[in-house]
Recover the amino acids of this structure.
C-alpha cells in the first residue's frame, strides 16, 4: 500500500510530495520537488530500492530540461549509467543522496540499523539539483536517540540533528525541511 508524504523547505518557498510504495522485494519512491529561493526549479524522481533499502535505480528529471539522469546500482556497490557504462567513482557506494529532498536520508537510516550511541561512516552518490551532477560524498550518521540522528558531512562543517518518524522518514531537518 502506498503512503504519501509532504515536506516544505525552511523558507516556506518550496514543497515536495513523495509516494512510497512497498511491495515484496522492492520499495519504490516517486517524488515531485518544487524548490523556491534564488534559483527556483521543479524536478521529479523515481527511486527503486530492494527490500533492504539499497538503491537499485534512480531516474531524475528537472522540468524544462530534456535530460534525464539515470543511475543503476547492483546493490553491492557497483554503479552504471543508463547506457551501462561503469561509474568507478561510485564504487562501493550503497546509497543515493538527492540534494533537494530529505527523503534520501531515510535510505542509510533504514539500511544501517545503527544502535543508539553508534556512528557509521558512509559514502553516497550525491546528486545535485538542479544541475543533476553526481559525485561521491562522504557522510556520517550517528543515532543519538531512537528517532534522532545526527547527519554530518565528512568533507565540510555541515551538521544537523534530524528527527524521524517510526519508519525512518524525516519529520524535522533543522534549517532545511519540515514534514507537513
Amino acid at each position: 500500500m502506498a503512503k504519501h508524504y509532504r515536506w516544505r523547505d525552511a523558507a516556506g518557498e518550496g514543497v515536495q510530495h513523495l509516494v512510497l510504495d512497498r511491495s515484496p522485494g522492492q520499495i519504490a519512491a516517486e517524488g515531485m520537488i518544487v524548490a523556491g529561493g534564488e534559483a527556483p526549479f521543479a524536478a521529479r524522481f523515481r527511486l527503486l530500492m530492494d527490500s533492504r533499502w539499497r538503491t537499485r535505480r534512480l531516474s531524475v528529471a528537472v522540468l524544462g530540461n530534456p535530460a534525464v539522469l539515470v543511475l543503476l546500482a547492483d546493490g553491492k556497490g557497483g554503479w552504471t549509467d543508463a547506457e551501462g557504462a561503469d561509474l568507478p567513482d561510485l564504487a562501493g557506494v550503497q546509497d543515493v543522496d538527492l540534494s533537494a529532498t530529505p527523503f534520501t536520508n531515510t535510505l542509510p537510516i533504514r539500511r544501517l540499523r545503527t544502535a543508539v550511541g553508534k556512528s557509521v561512516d558512509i559514502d553516497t552518490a550525491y546528486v545535485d539539483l538542479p544541475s543533476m551532477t553526481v559525485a561521491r560524498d562522504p557522510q556520517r550518521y550517528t543515532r543519538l536517540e531512537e528517532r534522532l540522528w545526527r547527519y554530518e558531512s565528512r568533507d565540510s562543517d555541515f551538521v544537523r540533528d534530524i528527527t524521524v518518524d517510526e519508519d525512518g522518514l524525516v519529520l524535522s531537518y533543522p534549517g532545511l525541511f519540515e514534514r507537513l
